[in-house]
C-alpha cells in the first residue's frame, strides 16, 4: 500500500489510513461539550489533560486545541483571552503526549505564539484570511488546514447560506486558498482541505458535501472532515447534541470511505473502533489473513 505521510514539524503523521483528531475545546461556551473544563468560569487544565490523555490512549493521532468557540452565533473572544486559554494547554499537551498538537485559531498572534511552542498543524476555520495570518503560517513551516466557510464568521454564517452549486463553489474557494498559500511559499504537501461542515451551510448543502467528499479528495490534498455532533446530525436523527454519537459515527465512516485523511471528533474511542472495523472489512487480502 502507498504510504502517505504529513510532515507536522518534528512529527510525521501516517495518513495512509484515516487519522482521528480529538477535539480539545478550551472555551466556556462550546455547543458540543458545553465548556466541560470550566468550573465557575475557571479553566481546569487538569481536566483538559485528563480528557486529552483518554483521547490519546483511545488512538487519537492529533489533538485540536481551540480557544474560540466557532459554533453558530458564538461571540468573539479577545486575542489576549484566546492566548491565555490555549498556550498553557498546548505547553502541557506537548510535554505529556506523543501526538501532533493542532491549533484551532484564526488569529496571527495566536498562531505565531503557538508555533513557537511546537504545534504540528494550523487549523483555521477562516482559511488564514485575517490580516497577517497567511504570513505567520508560512513562517511556522507546518501544515495548514484550509476550511471553507460562507459568510463573515460564526456570528452570522448560518443566516442564509446560498450556493450556485455547493460542491463547485466550495472547491473553487478551496483552490483559491491553495493558490494564496502557494504564493507565500507554503508547499503543496503542507496543505489540507476541509469543506467546513456546518459553516454557512444548510442541511442539504452538508449532506451533498459529505456524499461527494471524494470530489474534494480528488483535488489531491489530504482532506479533513468534521461532522462530530453537528447540527446536520441532529437534523437527520432528531437527537439533541448529547445523543448524536451514532449519527456522528456514520458520518465518520462515510467520510473515511470517501477518502478523508483526518476525522475531527469529540468521541475518539468510538470513532477509532468504527474506523478499525471499516479497515478490517476493506483491507486487501483480509480473506487470506483471517482464513481459518
Ligand atoms: C470544524 C473545525 C470546528 C471543522 C475544521 C464544531 C474548529 C465546531 N469545526 N475545524 N472546527 N473543520 N477544520 O462543531 O469542521 O466542532 S468547531
Write out key terms for the chains shown.
11 helices; two-stranded antiparallel sheet; 292 residues; eight-stranded parallel β-sheet; binds ligand 8Y7; 12 strands; TIM Barrel; alpha/beta
How would you portray this structure in words?
The chain is of the alpha/beta class and 292 residues long. The protein has one domain (5-283): TIM Barrel, CATH 3.20.20.20. It has helices at 45-58, 79-96, 108-116, 133-140, 166-183, 203-211, 213-217, 231-237, 245-257, 268-282, 286-289, and strands spanning 5-8, 11-14, 19-25, 38-39, 42-43, 62-66, 100-104, 121-124, 144-147, 191-194, 224-225, 262-265. The strands form three sheets. It has an eight-stranded parallel sheet. A two-stranded antiparallel ribbon has the order 1-2. Helix 1 (45-58) crosses helix 2, helix 2 runs parallel beside helix 3 (108-116) and helix 3 packs parallel to helix 4 (133-140). Bound molecules: ligand 8Y7. Residues 23, 32, 66, 70-71, 104, 123, 125, 145, 147, 194, 196-197, 224, 226, 230, 264 line the site of ligand 8Y7.
Mind sketching the topology for me?
Layout: E1 5-8, E2 11-14, E3 19-25, E4 38-39, E5 42-43, H1 45-58, E6 62-66, H2 79-96, E7 100-104, H3 108-116, E8 121-124, H4 133-140, E9 144-147, H5 166-183, E10 191-194, H6 203-211, H7 213-217, E11 224-225, H8 231-237, H9 245-257, E12 262-265, H10 268-282, H11 286-289
Parallel strand pairs: 3-6, 3-12, 6-7, 7-8, 8-9, 9-10, 11-12
Antiparallel strand pairs: 1-2, 4-5
The chain binds ligand 8Y7.
Amino acid at each position: 500500500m502507498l504510504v502517505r505521510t504529513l510532515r507536522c514539524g518534528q512529527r510525521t503523521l501516517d495518513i495512509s489510513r484515516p487519522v482521528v483528531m480529538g477535539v480539545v475545546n478550551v472555551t466556556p461556551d462550546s455547543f458540543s461539550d458545553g465548556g466541560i473544563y470550566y468550573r465557575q468560569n475557571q479553566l481546569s487544565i487538569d481536566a483538559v489533560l485528563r480528557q486529552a490523555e483518554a483521547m490519546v490512549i483511545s488512538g487519537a493521532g492529533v489533538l485540536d486545541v481551540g480557544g474560540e468557540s466557532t459554533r453558530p452565533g458564538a461571540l468573539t473572544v479577545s486575542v489576549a483571552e484566546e492566548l491565555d486559554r490555549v498556550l498553557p494547554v498546548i505547553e502541557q499537551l506537548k510535554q505529556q503526549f506523543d501526538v501532533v498538537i493542532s491549533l484551532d485559531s484564526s488569529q496571527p498572534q495566536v498562531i505565531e505564539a503557538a508555533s513557537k511552542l511546537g504545534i504540528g498543524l494550523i487549523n483555521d476555520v477562516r482559511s488564514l484570511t485575517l490580516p497577517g495570518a497567511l504570513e505567520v503560517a508560512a513562517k511556522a513551516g507546518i501544515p495548514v488546514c484550509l476550511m471553507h466557510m460562507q459568510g463573515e464568521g460564526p456570528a452570522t454564517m448560518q443566516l442564509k447560506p446560498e450556493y450556485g452549486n455547493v460542491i463547485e463553489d466550495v472547491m473553487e474557494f478551496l483552490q483559491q486558498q491553495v493558490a494564496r498559500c502557494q504564493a507565500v511559499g507554503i508547499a503543496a504537501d503542507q496543505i489540507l482541505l476541509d469543506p467546513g461542515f456546518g459553516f454557512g451551510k444548510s442541511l442539504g448543502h452538508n449532506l451533498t458535501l459529505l456524499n461527494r467528499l471524494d470530489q474534494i479528495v480528488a483535488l489531491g490534498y489530504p482532506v479533513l472532515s468534521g461532522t462530530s455532533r453537528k447540527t446536520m446530525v441532529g437534523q437527520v436523527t432528531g437527537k439533541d447534541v448529547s445523543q448524536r454519537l451514532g449519527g456522528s459515527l456514520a458520518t465518520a465512516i462515510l467520510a473515511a470511505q470517501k477518502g478523508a485523511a483526518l476525522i475531527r471528533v469529540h468521541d475518539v474511542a468510538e470513532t477509532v473502533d468504527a474506523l478499525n472495523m471499516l479497515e478490517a472489512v476493506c483491507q486487501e487480502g483480509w480473506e487470506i489473513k483471517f482464513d481459518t
